Amino acid sequence: MSVILETTKGDLTVDLFIKERPKTCLNFLKLCKMKRYNFNRFHHVERNFLCQTGDPTGTGRGGESIFGLLYGQQAKYYEAEQVPVLKHTKPGLLSMVNVGDNMLGSQFFITLGDNLDFLDKEHCVFGEVVEGHDALLNINEAICDENHIPYQDIRITHTVILDDPFPDPPGLEIPIHSPEPTKEMLDSGRIAADEDINDMEGKTAEEIEELIAEKEAKARATILEMVGDLPSVDAAPPENVLFVCKLNPVTTDDDLMIIFSRFGKIVNCEIIRDRQTMNSLQYAFIEFDNPKSCEDAYFKMDNVLIDDRRIHVDFSQSVSRLQWKGKGRGVEFVGKAFDPNKEDYKMKDQPKREQSKRISSDDHPKRYAPQQRQRDFQPRDQYRGGREHREGRDGRDRREHREDRDGRDRREHREDRDRRDHREDRDRREHREDRDRREHRTDRSDIDNRGRRGGERDHREDRYNHDHREERHNRDHRHQSDRRERDHRERRRSPDRSHKQEDVSAQKRIRRSSSPKNSHRTK
């Protein structure tokens, strides 16, 4: 069985446990039907724990059950159902508030966290939210005071019963329209639920910009505190320390102290250096004895030329000298802090550990003498000679830079020439390869043509020889056939004559062979 609770943060669809909690579900459904939850506000909201409502007075001490409406004050509360046991294991569970002695009225709460087991034996679970968890998240993120009362009202505007399996008890008069909220119910002293909160209303453009900048600074400070860069959100840098950057690497602490001492007494002047090489990192911190001197130096020394460099001056934003004393115990300023109520604000009994945080200008030459140039600690009467030495060194540096630039130009010119030669060689090689390919194609086409013409001529010669041989063979065969036929005819006519002729021919051959000429030829 479902009920929709319409709130100012969104709608919640609730399924009731009819079988496990029939009496509690009857009480809740009939109160919804009587519109007793309309305009009730969530008077108690604890993040990731619960949000409580159901009290028409909004104080957390009012409300009565449906039985009190029907039968009077003696039935204002009813006894809670404990069997079966339903536990508070997840967000979105509806549970009736136990007013004492295991008695229930009209107030209920919705869980906003997991595993709230300590509520199981005291409060009675009777339903759960199945839709509208986004509205629950909005309620959970409401901004509340120290008593967990939201600064802006969150109210139930209307209840809709989707299904009611219980018959109405006798004497229950259901209103036709939703009742109008009373003045006492709406006058909670908080921001109204439908009121538009505008912090910028009635303020000028400058005030709005200042407010936005303040909020952004507060957000950044909160992030820095979360990552551990700030000891506290409210931590502020000292007002008597000046930050100087874009320094020349040859500028020393004594130089800065002499230049800035005209604005007031300098307590500490330190150029930040690399830990290993002790070379200047080109920025410094200058601490004055009062904020007024620091402010005068800020307005006068910005963009001033020192050692051929335009420096930049600003108020220090470093909080490295603020030591966090622990949660809820604030911060402590390590070192010399400005106190306008004292003539001498310097800490006389300063521990050695705190003194080691910063090194005075008098002790600086002793500590960093091996790493400094010899010029840095010469007497002031030789400052002119030091300047001439620095100018000579700067000129040497410029010459070396010019020589390096010329060498780089020569290298670039040589590299360009090599690239040009390589490109020309490649072009010549490609041209030669193209020419060879064209000649090869021409030779091959000539060979193909000659081969084709030679093949035709050979074919004609072969065919001519073949025809000639066949013709000669046919002629010989024809002659032989004619001779055989003639001999055959002659033998048939006169065989004796033929024998005689053969004898005559044989005698002729013998005489021819026995003649002197043939014998001489034989010898």
Topology:
Layout: E1 2-7, E2 10-16, H1 22-33, E3 40-41, E4 44-46, E5 50-53, H2 66-71, E6 78-79, E7 93-100, E8 103-111, E9 124-131, H3 133-140, E10 155-161, H4 183-186, H5 205-227, E11 241-245, H6 253-260, E12 266-273, E13 280-288, H7 291-301, E14 305-306, E15 309-310, E16 312-315, E17 322-324, E18 331-333, H8 352-355, H9 364-368, H10 383-493, H11 495-514, H12 516-522
Antiparallel strand pairs: 1-2, 1-10, 2-9, 3-10, 4-5, 5-8, 6-8, 7-8, 7-9, 11-13, 11-16, 12-13, 14-15, 17-18
Provide a descriptive summary of the structure in words.
The protein is of the alpha+beta class and 523 residues long. The chain has 12 helices and 18 strands. It has helices at 22-33, 66-71, 133-140, 183-186, 205-227, 253-260, 291-301, 352-355, 364-368, 383-493, 495-514, 516-522; strands spanning 2-7, 10-16, 40-41, 44-46, 50-53, 78-79, 93-100, 103-111, 124-131, 155-161, 241-245, 266-273, 280-288, 305-306, 309-310, 312-315, 322-324, 331-333. The strands form 4 sheets. Strands 1, 2, 3, 4, 5, 6, 7, 8, 9 and 10 form a 10-stranded antiparallel beta sheet that branches. Strands 12-13-11-16 form a 4-stranded antiparallel beta sheet, with helices on one face. α10 (383-493) packs across α11. 21% of the residues are buried.
Using brief descriptors, characterize the structure shown.
four-stranded antiparallel beta sheet; Nucleotide-bd_a/b_plait_sf; 12 helices; Alpha-Beta Plaits; Cyclophilin; flat; 18 strands; disordered C terminus; about 525 residues; isomerase; alpha+beta
